[in-house]
Amino acid sequence: MTARLDQLTAPVEVGVFYLVPTVRGEWKPYGVRDWPVIGPRHNDRHCLNFDPTHYHLDARFMPSFGRSDDDWFWCQVAVAPLQVNIRLNADGLPDPIWKRRKCRRTENPYTPQLMEQVSRNKGFQCLHDEYAGRQAKHDGRGWVCPHRAVPLADHVAREGVIQCPLHLLRIDAHTGKVLPREGA
Questions:
Q1: Three-state SS annotation for the chain
Q2: In this model, does residue 61 exceed pLDDT 50?
């Protein structure tokens, strides 16, 4: 039986198939597909001033497309709102459909350059400053990000920190406290 991401109690493993939420749409130049998404459909009016409703792509379940700049490419995909990349249908963004997908990487890649850009972005500063010190909830499987309620049980902790893939909040893997942004 294939496990659903929202039921995992441990991080994903490369090469294993999981049931993953997907949204059907066209992402140029790669055509119409069921793209893996992470987190809820949302907007980022508060702090980030990004009004359109969108999803974020889950790079852990995306193919490599044979690119030589794989880390940079997937780093951009990981933070790119799906609304920008996916052509909307007449009814707006559809609800996700669970599809079987192979795990290609254990986390959404974030390069040092992206993290530096995020730390300088005033919207991200506002968001990170607002949530620093807050307690994440534990849903019995793992921590849940307090910003958009993204379950984090299926994400890898690095040096005792789990990074939420949606807006890069850093959560202490032991206590569940949201940490200040890097460099703050």
A1: CCCEHHHCCCCCCCCCEEEEEEEEEEECCCCEEEEEEEEEEEEECCCCCEEEEEEEECHHHCCCCCCCCHHHHHHHHHHCEHHHHECCECCECCCCEEEEEECCCCCCCCCHHHHHHHHHCHHHHHHHHHHCCCECEECCCCEECCCCCCECCCCCCECCEEECCCCCCEEECCCCEEECCCCC
A2: yes
Considering only CA atoms, which of 113, 152, 154 is closest in space to residue 10? 154
Q: What pLDDT digit, counting tens, does each position of 93-152 carry?
A: 788 999 999 999 888 776 566 667 666 777 778 888 999 999 999 999 999 999 999 999
Which structure tokens are listed for 10?
Answer: 């441990």
Rounded CA gap, 178 and 184, in Å?
13
Q: What is the pLDDT of residue 84?
A: 44
Dihedral (CA of 117, 118, 124, 129) sign: negative
CA–CA gap between residue 60 and residue 102 (Å, rounded): 9
Please give the structure tokens belonging to residue 90: 């007449």
